[in-house]
Write a structure and sequence with these properties.
CATH topology of chain A: Rossmann fold
CATH class of chain B: Alpha Beta
Number of strands of chain B: 9
Strand order of the largest sheet of chain B: 8-7-6-5-4-3-2-9
Shape of chain A: globular
Number of helices of chain B: 13
Low-confidence stretches of chain A: none
Number of domains of chain A: 1
Structural class of chain B: alpha/beta
Number of domains of chain B: 1
Shape of chain B: globular
CATH superfamily of chain A: Class I glutamine amidotransferase (GATase) domain
Strand content of chain A: 25-35%
CATH topology of chain B: TIM Barrel
Largest sheet of chain A: 7 strands, mixed
Mean pLDDT of chain A: 95
Low-confidence stretches of chain B: none
Radius of gyration of chain B: 18 Å
GO cellular component, one term (chain A): glutaminase complex
CATH superfamily of chain B: Aldolase class I
Helix content of chain A: 25-40%
Oligomer: heterodimer
Helix content of chain B: 40-55%
Largest sheet of chain B: 8 strands, parallel
CATH class of chain A: Alpha Beta
EC number (chain A): 4.3.3.6, 3.5.1.2
Function (chain A): Catalyzes the hydrolysis of glutamine to glutamate and ammonia as part of the biosynthesis of pyridoxal 5'-phosphate. The resulting ammonia molecule is channeled to the active site of PdxS.
Distance between the termini of chain A: 24 Å
Pathway (chain A): Cofactor biosynthesis; pyridoxal 5'-phosphate biosynthesis
Strand content of chain B: 5-15%
Number of helices of chain A: 5
Catalytic activity (chain A): L-glutamine + H2O = L-glutamate + NH4(+); aldehydo-D-ribose 5-phosphate + D-glyceraldehyde 3-phosphate + L-glutamine = pyridoxal 5'-phosphate + L-glutamate + phosphate + 3 H2O + H(+)
Mean pLDDT of chain B: 95
Strand order of the largest sheet of chain A: 2-1-3-4-12-11-10
Order of helices and strands of chain A: EHEEHHEHEEEEEEEEH
Order of helices and strands of chain B: EHEHEHHEHEEHEHHHEHEHHH
Distance between the termini of chain B: 39 Å
């Protein structure tokens, strides 16, 4: 059994909870720091990154979230969640949680009228994956340790850095759960690896 | 291939606002205060509802200069209001780049019979509702988000509570009906049959439903969340209070942690005077904005 939490300070939480569903996966909604202790993986949902950042600061979530990632527990962010994870944000002095070695640009496609949906091939996940982009960010550049999982029109829209996973669109708004199940598998593997280490003599 | 303006793209935008507060602002400076306080979006207006109420006369779409000023001031989504049935105001706001349009009874209706066919637009719409029939008629016309009508600009929560409870109880009723009862219920509610079928299958509305119209304190916002709102609109409450920045922050926190009563108690301290408010029985029927459309 793995336990995955969805950070619920603001945003589309329920959709992630539904997409993460698996027989061996217990999903919870996270509003308080102490809930992080019992989790094997964490999801940052879509929403408004400025609102989430304010609430993260207000409730002193920043360090505990950074420690969670530093303990090599898997973290997955979509859209605003990806923005929270980035080391750098174009035009801003620094990133929010600075977990992942990448620079992202907010609202990179323009305003809501430019929002769209399409289908994508994502490395290691599958083909014809439905992707909904809503006032979406783009990954402008990535560090050496980051693997690019998907590009759209030559721009990076999904990436992985070891135990960290991020995409600029919303897999949680579709019935296609392959991307979420890819993350659930990351959490299973990470938990297994951790227990092997602990069990070693 | 990229498809714009699909139901999923338009409704999804509102899904991202869940658990958040959308604040009425009349200029760039207020918009910045709202963004700084943690608003998920702002509604750009020429006047907040209580001032519209006080001014009387015909209330129209805001001057595009104001909408542009607000869009330039913040990075969060910007909404704007068009008069009910005013296709051209809505098209102008879409052309300006507004992220969401509120076809709103707060403005003086341009059409006293028909709402707009919102399916024709790329930009998503939010509309007001007092009951499930009204909610589903608006969705049928293409609204991607709903809000209670409440009674705007009164600082009195009673109408928003009535509308939220009404919609929630009617959803429960439909969800528990057998399929052969739905057509008659559709007739009784004046709602599209297919949408009732959807509710019966999924047990919820197919779009997000926020609370609006009379929210004046952090406790009011939390109350609406408790009653099942997906988020809240705060109109006159914030910038008519003594300390807007503090007030705005408190409403945002009370919405996130709506069941943390100790916290809401803390948030409610020393906020200064909330807006005075209007008792419903003293409001002349002709001044009731919620009755301007069905």
């Amino acid at each position: 059994m793995v336990k995955i939490g969805v950070l619920a300070l603001q945003g589309a939480v329920r959709e992630h909870v539904e997409s993460l569903e698996a027989p061996d996966c217990e999903v919870s909604v996270v509003k308080r720091i102490e809930q992080l202790d019992e989790l094997d993986g964490l999801v940052f949902p879509g929403g408004e990154s400025t609102t989430m950042r304010r609430l993260i600061d207000k409730y002193h979530f920043r360090e505990p979230l950074q420690q969670f990632a530093a303990a090599e527990k898997p973290v997955f962010g979509t859209c605003a969640g990806l923005i929270l994870m980035a080391e750098d944000i174009t035009g801003e002095p620094e990133g929010h949680l600075q977990l992942m070695d990448m620079e992202v640009e907010r609202n990179a496609f323009g305003r809501q009228r430019e929002s769209f949906e399409t289908t994508l091939s994502v490395k290691g996940v599958g083909d014809d994956i439905e992707a909904v982009f809503i006032r979406a960010p783009l990954i402008k550049s990535v560090g050496d340790e980051v693997e690019i999982l998907c590009e759209y029109n030559g721009e990076i829209v999904a990436a992985r850095q070891n135990h960290l996973l991020a995409c600029s669109y919303h897999p949680e708004l579709t019935k296609d759960t392959r991307f979420h199940q890819y993350f659930v598998q990351m959490v299973r593997e990470s938990k297994e690896a951790a227990s092997t280490v602990t069990a070693a003599p | 291939m990229a498809d714009r303006g699909t139901d999923r793209v338009k409704r999804g935008m509102a899904e991202m606002q869940k658990g958040g507060v959308i604040m009425d602002v009349v200029n760039g400076e207020q918009a910045k205060i709202a963004e700084e306080a943690g608003a998920v979006a702002v509604m750009a207006l020429e006047r907040v509802p209580s001032d519209i109420r006080a001014a009387g006369g015909v209330a129209r779409m805001a001057d595009p200069t104001i909408v542009e000023e607000v869009m330039n001031a913040v990075s969060i989504p910007v909404m704007a209001k068009a008069r009910i049935g005013h296709i051209v105001e809505a098209r102008v706001l879409e052309a300006l780049g507004a992220d969401y349009i509120d076809e709103s009874e707060v403005l003086t209706p341009a059409d006293d019979v028909y709402h707009m066919d919102k399916n024709e637009f790329t930009v998503p719409f939010v509309c007001g509702c007092r009951d499930l029939g009204e909610a589903l008629r608006r969705i049928g016309e293409g609204a991607s988000m709903l809000r209670t009508k409440g009674e705007p600009g009164t600082g009195n929560i009673v109408e928003a509570v009535r509308h939220m409870r009404m919609v929630q109880s009617q959803i429960k009723k439909v969800a528990n009906m057998s399929k052969d009862e739905l057509m008659t219920e559709a007739k009784n509610l004046g709602a599209p049959y297919e949408l009732l079928l959807d509710i019966q299958e999924n047990g919820k509305l197919p779009v997000v439903n926020f609370a609006a119209g009379g929210i004046a304190t952090p406790a009011d916002a939390a109350l609406m969340m408790e009653l099942g709102a997906d988020g809240v609109f705060v109109g006159s409450g914030i910038f008519k209070s003594e300390n807007p920045a503090k007030f705005a922050r408190s409403i945002v926190e009370a919405t996130t942690h709506y069941q943390d009563y100790e916290l809401i108690g803390q948030l409610s301290k020393d906020l200064g005077t909330a807006m005075k408010g209007i008792e419903m029985s003293t409001l002349d029927p002709s001044q009731r904005m919620q009755d301007r459309s069905e």
